[in-house]
Amino acid sequence: MKDAAIPGPTAIESFEQEAHEGWLAWVSSVDHKQLGIMYLLGAFVFFLVGGVLALLMRIQLAVPNNHFLTPQMYNQIFTMHGTTMIFLVVVPLLVGMATYMVPLMIGARDMAFPRLNALSFWVQIFGGIMLYFSFATSGINGGAPAVGWFAYAPLTETAYSYGPGVNYWILGLLGIGVGTLTAGINLMTTILTMRAPGMHIRRLPLFVWMTLVTGFLIVTVMPILNAGLVMLLADRLLNAHFFRADTGGSAVLWQHVFWAFGHPEVYIMVLPAFGIISEVIPVFSGKPIYGYEVVAASTLAIAFLSMLVWAHHMFAVGLGHTFDIFFALCSMAIAVPTGIKIFNWTATMYQGRVRFTTAMLYAVSFLLMFTIGGLSGIAFAVAPIDWQLTDSYFVVAHFHYVLFGGTALALFAGVYYWFPKMSGRMLDERWGKVQFWLTFIGFNLTFMIQHVLGMFGMPRRVFTYPPLPGWEAMNMISTIGAFVLALAVLVLMINIVISLRSGEIAGDNPWSAWTLEWATTSPPPPENFTRVPPVNGRRPLWDLAHPDRTDEMLARAAG
Amino acid sequence: MPGTYSSNAFTLAPASPQALAISNLFIGTLYFLGAILILVTGLVLYAIIRYRDRPGAPEAKQVFGSMRLEILWTAAPVLSLAVLATFMARTMMASDPPSAGDRPDIRLVAHQWWWEIIYLKSGATAANEIHIPAGKRLLFDFRSADVIHDFWVPALGRKIDVVPGHPNRLWIEADKPGTYLGACAEFCGNEHAWMRIMVIADPPDQFATWLKQQSAAPAKPVTAEEQLGAKIFRDRICTNCHLRGVGPDLTHIATRRTLAAGVADNTPQNLATWLHDPNTFKPGSNMPDFKLSDDEVHALVAYLETQK
Q1: Do A102 and A209 meet the contact criterion of CB atoms below 8 Å apart?
Q2: Nearest chain B Cα distance for residue A52, angstroms
Q3: Are A104 and A516 in contact (CB under 8 A)?
Q4: CATH code of the domain in which B268 resides
Q5: Using one digit for the tens of pLDDT, what is the confidence trace for A5-58?
Q6: How many folded domains does chain A comprise?
Q7: How confident is the model at residue B239 (pLDDT cuts 50, 70, 90)?
Q8: Considering the entire predicted model, what is its pTM?
């Protein structure tokens, strides 16, 4: 076996990494594993906050004409819930997962720019703190922003949102946006320049491949949001007129700017989750991913199409049928590469040997739940259906099936899959299965019924509602589901605490997986590898374990 | 609280040709999507049950893929989506027919948290409750006085955003007399939840009578209390908003079913509660609390109840 040179940061940076240990490491570290865990923990804290906000909303909506929250409070809460979950939870969780795993999976010592890595994390955290500081602003117009996560102008203009909340929202998002942008640049550069010898771009683990595509999307669309935020800030603080219709601006312009970022953002939040699924399903089926090239290529197709579908968020604006049809067709088209992925993941399990670990349970439930979210997405691509259902509870159900049923379930799969690598100990499988079933039941209880609520005419973002037929019962069911889901999160926390103390020791490769991160100790040492195994195919550890039938030989035999 | 909820706002219970077109497409699409969901769920369940790991299970077969299958599950979705797209285009024309060259019948001006209704031919104005003649197609013209709102009455068809600086038009009709409920569907600030819509389709002759009444001046106040109320209405700057399109025109308020865009039934008691403190029903609405005395409230209620 030939020892491979390990590409990595310069000796000076390596020295710095070892200089700080213990508590100081939490603020001074530039190590990708430390920062990855900090990303995950930071995002988890925000996840708990966002979850509490969700519970407050569900309590308020449990019964009609409720007075648990004032409308001012409710409107701040749903704005902060959405903004938090998207910008401070889902994206950082995925970036954190990638920050930890990508260098390991390509056989590198660290990220390409370790200091930039730390900057990305801290800027993102400070952006989050800035956003939440808005709650502390006082006065009759004080408090957090109350404009929704897509902050439609002119409601965000000073004429309608006098208080400083929206300014905090803009500045917080600018910070978070810069953090995400630099993280995207860093991940792309790492993947393009830091791969171990033999790790050709066509041999990348699919999680790494999809992170690369996500990095490309981030770098392409994040600046659009940042530009829009600066325009809005100029309107609010400098009396500019970008989005004020009464003085020559355009309220529709904001929607174009926001969704030109906002729809690719959906795929930024989903592609890395696809990547996790593309790692977990093959390993627990005992088979290579079905149709590697097609799964990889369909990711590019999704990324490209994702930039041509933004205006399906604007079908109700009244921009004309020709306009609507173009974006409807593009939105339908994006279902094709997504469907290809679903079929390939399913085919991966065929003729396999499916091990029902908690990680695999989450991955399989992802397949089913994400399919529901994807199919309701097709319904929204059909413009006339969108004309009825957009801005109703149907759309709330739809994107929770995508972002919770999709991304969050994939993240849970990833947590159970990679926790042993990160901590050296296994997460408890019994607690894991309890958490899985609570999550699965709670999630469907909360959101399935919301499809029906939307079809029965309940608009989203209402702080209360009249007792129309069926609305009471459906809202109550949804609220009960939300509490089951909260219980599931509690179980995950218990499991993590117990497993960190007394979980089974994991060893290097507890799942018999094949990618490079499993070729080092758990947790990996500083600089990750003492030696990187040779990479002659997509599954280096399979090749190592089966020298008589490596992937190359198998592929040749299959013709 | 309003008691007029016998009618629903169900998207699959269409009450107009436009809503029927969308409803048919929606039901068809639901069957199509449901079939895909059953297919995928079936395939996944079969895979995980048939190939689950158990003692003595054979080692997984190392298969890398099949181009034939890839082509199949690329081409089949493309074809079925193409079919769906043609149905979509037809439904777009049926549910939102062109209106260029036609003159609007009704202008709807959305305000932070109420709807102003202007009958363009007669000049009558109303608020929140839109009377239309059943069986007649009317062209609506949508304007916003402030932020973005959205007009959505599910039983009558598509929703349409009401965007400042971007007037929209939509044909609206109801097959049969009845009450059709809806709401503002674009978040528009504080009291977005209580910006509900009621479309009341009257038999044509009844509608004609109603419109005539709305176009005429209401009866003069008679009793001393009613006259006192009229004086308060003038003196306590109510008219600054309620006659200038800032708040709803109250000229025929006694003919309306609900108060403040659907938040409460229009009864003398509720009207009194509203005048005592609007925040009881609609906290944060633009109606100020004038700290009226009980006597003033009674007089105002007496006066407003004459405004038919």
Answers
A1: no
A2: 21
A3: yes
A4: 1.10.760.10
A5: 555 544 444 444 455 567 777 888 999 999 999 999 999 999 999 999 999 999
A6: 1
A7: confident
A8: 0.94
pLDDT for A140: 72
**Across the interface, do B12 and A455 touch by the CB < 8 Å criterion?**
yes
In a domain, A299, yes or no: yes
Share of chain A above pLDDT 70, in %: 96
Q: Answer yes or no: do A155 and B192 touch at CB < 8 A.
A: no
Last residue of one domain, picked from the residues B193, B216, B239? B216
Q: Is residue A498 part of a domain?
A: yes
- Quickly list DSSP for A85-144: IIIIIIHHHHHHHHHHHHHHHTT-SS-S-HHHHHHHHHHHHHHHHHHHHGGG--STT-SS
Strand-pair partners of A425: A505
Is A7 a member of any domain?
Answer: no
CATH number at residue A190: 1.20.210.10
Do B195 and B105 share a structural domain?
Answer: yes
Task: Say what the ipTM of the complex is.
Answer: 0.94
Q: Could you tell me the residue range of the domain that residue B90 belongs to?
A: 1-54+62-216
Q: Cα–Cα distance between A93 and A96 in angstroms, integer?
A: 5
**What pLDDT digit, counting tens, does each position of A296-336 carry?**
999 999 999 999 999 999 999 999 999 999 999 999 999 99
Mean pLDDT of chain A: 93
Do B187 and B70 share a structural domain?
yes
Axis crossing angle, helix A114-133 with helix A165-193, rounded to the nearest 10:
160
Residue A217 is assigned to a structural domain of this protein: yes
Secondary structure element (H or E) that encloses residue B23, with its range: helix B17-50
Calculate the alpha carbon distances from B189 to A24, A249, A253, B40 in Å. Answer: 45, 20, 20, 41
With a cut of 60, say whether residue A470 has pLDDT above it: yes
* One domain for residues B292 and B199: no
Same domain, B142 and B257: no
A284: containing domain? 30-558
> What's B136's domain CATH number?
2.60.40.420
Q: Measured between CB atoms, does A364 come within 8 Å of chain B?
A: yes
Give the span between the Cα atoms of A418 and A424, in whole angstroms: 10
pLDDT of residue A19: 53
pLDDT tens figures, B168-200: 999 999 999 999 999 999 999 999 999 999 999
- Write down the pLDDT at residue A555: 85
Same domain, B19 and B90: yes
Of B78, B84, B161, the CB nearest to A316: B161
User: Which residue in A292, A279, A508 sits closest to A413, CA to CA?
Assistant: A279
Q: Give the tens place of pLDDT for each residue, A441-457.
A: 999 999 999 999 999 99
* Chain A residues near residue B9 by CB distance under 8 angstroms: 456-457, 468
- Tell me: do B107 and B175 sit in the same domain: yes
Closest chain A residue by Cα to residue B285: A71
Residue of A343, A388, A436, A462 to mutate, testing the B interface (most B Cβ within 10 Å of its Cβ): A388
